[in-house]
Predict the 3D structure of the following.
Amino acid sequence: MIEKDFTAESITSNLNTTLIGQKVIFYPQVTSTMDVARREAKRGTPEGTVIIAGEQTGGHGRQKRLWLSPPGNIALSVILYPDVASLPYLVMIASLAVVHSIYSVTGLKADIKWPNDVLIGGKKVCGILIENEIGKDVPARAIMGIGININLGESKVDDSSVPVISLEKEIRRAVEKVDLVKQLLAEMERLYTMLPEGREIFAEWRQRLITLGKRVVVMTGDEKLEGTADSVDSSGALILRLDNGNLVTVVAGDVTLREK
Ligand code: BTN
């Protein structure tokens, strides 16, 4: 699609949601949609507000890693005010929404690498960053940041150790970015409104994790743990079986995971 047709209006028109994406703020260029979303959330913007960028100049990922999002790709942040009990499900909702929307727009089957990378054929097509702020006696402020590679050039990689892939390269035709964003927001809303009951969401997320049963290296702070990804608990934490047979619970967000 022509980038100039990618606007807030093109996303909101005929959007099949009642919450997520009812307000869309589009920046042709911005440092990071996370920075804008944080400011908007503090100001009390309506739940479901989406900040979306044509291009980010300071995109970042987990562990403060650089995230490249030149024009043509998807970089957005969604602002939510969930119950604290719902927070563990956000990462599952975001990754499932990405997997479902990629499938419905391109026919490509994507997998989830714990906790929230979306891969196609073992290569990273999407990164997800969830930021939560929990206050006393008020709903949490959560920001779901999503970056999807649509047409990242060969040399453009994020600075994690995972190889990257772009949707257009994979399907060898143009991807309708607006359609993908609309599907993504609708899918996110469908899953989000299933809460506070998150059992089905957890079950599908667990079933789509390609990490389970694999040898992994987990970097948590200065500590390096090596073992087999045994299972996940309902909060999304990874249960790692160390070589001495002991089980260790690793909370998402604190770690870098490398498959061996
Ligand atoms: C990761 O893989 O570590 C997460 C990457 C998250 C990237 C998205 S792009 C939209 C939003 N803005 C950012 O600066 N980061 C997230």
